[in-house]
Automatic annotation (TrEMBL):
<feature type="repeat" description="PPR">
    <location>
        <begin position="286"/>
        <end position="320"/>
    </location>
</feature>
<dbReference type="InterPro" id="IPR046848">
    <property type="entry name" value="E_motif"/>
</dbReference>
<dbReference type="GO" id="GO:0003723">
    <property type="term" value="F:RNA binding"/>
</dbReference>
<dbReference type="GO" id="GO:0009451">
    <property type="term" value="P:RNA modification"/>
</dbReference>
<feature type="domain" description="DYW">
    <location>
        <begin position="554"/>
        <end position="632"/>
    </location>
</feature>
<comment type="similarity">
    <text>Belongs to the PPR family. PCMP-E subfamily.</text>
</comment>
<dbReference type="GO" id="GO:0008270">
    <property type="term" value="F:zinc ion binding"/>
</dbReference>
<feature type="repeat" description="PPR">
    <location>
        <begin position="214"/>
        <end position="249"/>
    </location>
</feature>
<dbReference type="Pfam" id="PF20431">
    <property type="entry name" value="E_motif"/>
</dbReference>
<protein>
    <recommendedName>
        <fullName>DYW domain-containing protein</fullName>
    </recommendedName>
</protein>
<dbReference type="InterPro" id="IPR046960">
    <property type="entry name" value="PPR_At4g14850-like_plant"/>
</dbReference>
<dbReference type="Pfam" id="PF01535">
    <property type="entry name" value="PPR"/>
</dbReference>
<comment type="similarity">
    <text>Belongs to the PPR family. PCMP-H subfamily.</text>
</comment>
<dbReference type="Pfam" id="PF14432">
    <property type="entry name" value="DYW_deaminase"/>
</dbReference>
<dbReference type="InterPro" id="IPR011990">
    <property type="entry name" value="TPR-like_helical_dom_sf"/>
</dbReference>
<feature type="repeat" description="PPR">
    <location>
        <begin position="152"/>
        <end position="186"/>
    </location>
</feature>
<dbReference type="Pfam" id="PF13041">
    <property type="entry name" value="PPR_2"/>
</dbReference>
Length: 632
DNA sequence: TTAGGGTTAG
């Protein structure tokens, strides 16, 4: 009888373990909590029942519930806590955004004389990588060698990944070459590192040398091609992967490829992936894939396609809604964002990202009162503590609209220290509204915070120059020249025939350069007749880095302005795409005032819709006006 | 009866 009861109990415990594992896999925290509650009274969870206890801990960890995981961990008497318990909680901290807590737990674990194994080391490196500075990782590496894990493939893979994430690819390569036995993960970690730090050409050399490849390796390489605008090569590898090597795309792969498309604006590959997903998946597209589809279409400027995907989704989570709202915000469709938000709160609970989208939508659309209202009711109505992103949006919103004092008082009352983005945003507004006093004060703060970042010295000099204080402006420029300042070059890119074409200001590297410049001459002539007046002064505060004009005459300044990267890209678009077709351009920095005015007239003169994604948002030029209504 | 759990690459 007793034997029978014991048998039943152990069977029950095993069933519970399976259930907890399933909850962990599907991040079903609510179900997991209910199961946990139901099991507490059964007496099944005992100190001795290591596996069941660990399954519960793991469930909370996998669902990202740091608090509950910690509670379960703390309830285990110290002498019963084993390596797996410690490692699980460390991983939970590292994944949940508290890597330092994870590392502290490791120190505590060592002091408590708990056995440390290769899994523990993997988590140590995960946490070190998340810290983002090499100092912790190097210490962990030393620890790993001392403890004799140098020949553990898992530990080596994790330490290599940590070095990749810290930007130390040489160290990764050294460990890789010294490894006796390597796994596919070792190769893929290095492949990812080479893509990131040494470029896709070197990555391809390594990819070709791989003794075996799994879908992760294929995805890394294909995404690298997509990110670099090499559509033909990306399609070539996709074909090899699917039709020659017999792999299929799963939802993680699909999402990775779509993210690469979103980043590089490659809607051609993005659409192909969409069609693949529709054909391959029998029931409905996974919610994660559908959300990355919305993000992809939105970032490629196809907001209508994004909205179509959104509308047919049978279920949507908060991330789906956020993707849709952020996409609309980038397009400056503030009214639509606010309207959709009303629908959203009936379906899901908004989170901090939702409000970043809302505040940025208000900012891009000039909806000052609404944005202000949302910001001030964040905590009281929605229980959300304002984040640095919320602050920078609201400062931007108020600053642009000229409420500089209010924006400043929000900054001074921040519960977290303001960063470069927040202060820089108000600084931009000071330039626009010509508030030299506050601007000067902010720049001094910024120069103190980032003494090596010459951007702020440039802004200060521009500001003095605009205020007619040329002596002060010149003295800063002299200092900057002596320091050999190089600015990030402005680059505009455009897809034609599936291939990316990149332009920087005044460059003549394109094969059709001659035709492009002929078109440019014609275009400038035509838009001048239609009212375009070059605005050389805009250069001062535009934040655009399409050239340096100090010490040049008016004509040279104009010439330099005409060959801004986005103007070259639009000329190439005009000569290489069919009449009437929209032209999509991607720019790494913000579009300058002059190009903005020019594009409006180009859209009218050539009867073309021109869509430009700059660093901040989309500008859709049509029949002489822009979707931003010049509010940006 | 014994082993099982926790981890890394997109």
């Amino acid at each position: 009888m007793i034997w029978q009861t014991e048998c039943t109990l152990s069977l029950l415990a095993r069933h519970y373990r399976t259930l907890f594992r399933t909850c962990a896999r599907y991040s079903a925290l609510d179900v997991g909590k209910k199961l946990h509650a139901s099991i507490v009274t059964t007496g099944l969870v005992t100190c001795q029942n290591t596996f069941l206890r660990n399954a519960i801990l793991h469930m909370y960890a996998a669902c990202g519930s740091v608090l509950y995981a910690r509670k379960v961990f703390d309830e285990i008497p110290l002498s019963y806590k084993d390596t797996v318990d410690w490692t699980t909680l460390m991983g939970c901290y590292a994944h949940g955004g508290f890597p330092l807590d994870g590392l502290n737990l490791f120190v505590h674990m060592k002091k408590s004389d708990v056995l440390i194994d290769e899994y523990t080391m993997v988590v140590v490196f995960l946490a070190s990588a998340k810290m983002g500075c090499e100092q912790f990782g190097v210490q962990g590496h030393g620890c790993m060698v001392k403890m004799g894990f140098s020949s553990s493939i898992k530990a080596c893979n994790a330490v290599m990944d940590m070095y990749v994430k810290c930007g130390l690819i040489d160290k990764t390569r050294r460990i890789f070459s010294e490894m006796g036995e390597k796994s596919i993960v070792s190769w893929t970690v290095v492949l990812g590192g080479v893509v990131k730090w040494e470029g896709f050409e070197n990555a391809r050399l390594l990819f070709d040398k791989m003794p075996e490849r799994n879908e992760v390796a294929w995805t890394v390489m294909i995404a690298a091609y997509i990110e670099n605008g090499l559509t033909k090569e990306a399609f070539g590898l996709l074909r090899e992967m699917l039709f020659e090597s017999g792999f299929e795309l799963n939802f993680v792969t699909l999402s990775s490829l779509l993210s690469a498309c979103a980043q590089s604006g490659n809607v051609l590959v993005g659409k192909w992936v969409h069609v693949y997903a529709l054909k391959m998946i029998e029931h409905e597209i996974d919610i994660v894939v559908a959300t990355t589809l919305i993000n992809m279409y939105a970032k490629c400027g196809r907001i209508d396609d994004a909205f179509r995907v959104f509308l047919v989704m049978p279920r949507r989570n908060v991330i789906t809604w956020n993707a849709m709202l952020s996409g609309l915000a980038m397009q400056g469709k503030g009214d639509m964002v606010l309207d959709l938000f009303g629908q959203m709160i009936r379906e899901v609970k908004p989170d901090d990202v939702t409000f970043t989208a809302i505040l940025s939508a208000c900012s891009h659309s000039g909806l000052v009162d609404q944005g202000r209202h949302f910001f001030y009711s964040l905590e009281s109505t929605y229980g959300i503590k304002p984040s640095i992103e919320h602050y920078s949006c609201v400062v931007d919103l108020l600053g642009r609209a000229g409420y500089l004092e209010e924006a400043e008082s929000i900054i001074r009352g921040m519960t977290i220290p303001p960063n470069e983005v927040v202060l820089g945003s108000l600084l931009g507004s000071c330039s626009v509204h010509k508030n030299l006093e506050l601007g000067e004060c902010l720049i001094k703060e910024l120069v103190q915070m980032y003494p090596d970042n010459t951007k702020y010295h440039v802004l200060l000099s521009n500001m003095y120059s605009l205020a007619g204080k040329n002596d002060k402006a010149n003295s800063i420029r002299v200092v900057l020249r002596s320091r050999g300042v190089r600015k990030v070059p402005g680059i505009s890119s455009i897809y034609v025939g599936g291939q990316i074409h990149c332009f920087s200001a005044g460059d003549k590297l394109h094969l059709q350069s001659q035709e492009i410049y002929m078109m440019l001459d014609e275009m400038i002539r035509k838009i001048r007749l239609a009212g375009y007046a070059p605005d050389t002064a805009c250069q001062k505060f535009s934040g655009s880095n399409d050239g340096d004009y100090y010490g040049y005459g008016q004509e040279e300044k104009e010439q330099a302005l005409f060959s801004h990267s986005e103007k070259l890209a639009v000329c190439f678009g005009l000569i290489s795409t069919q009449a009437g077709m929209p032209i999509y351009i991607f720019k790494n920095l913000r579009i300058c005032q002059d190009c903005h005015s020019a594009m409006k007239i180009v859209s009218k003169v050539y009867n073309r819709e021109i869509v430009i994604r700059d660093r901040n948002r989309f500008h859709r030029f049509k029949l002489g006006s822009c979707s931003c209504f010049d509010y940006w």
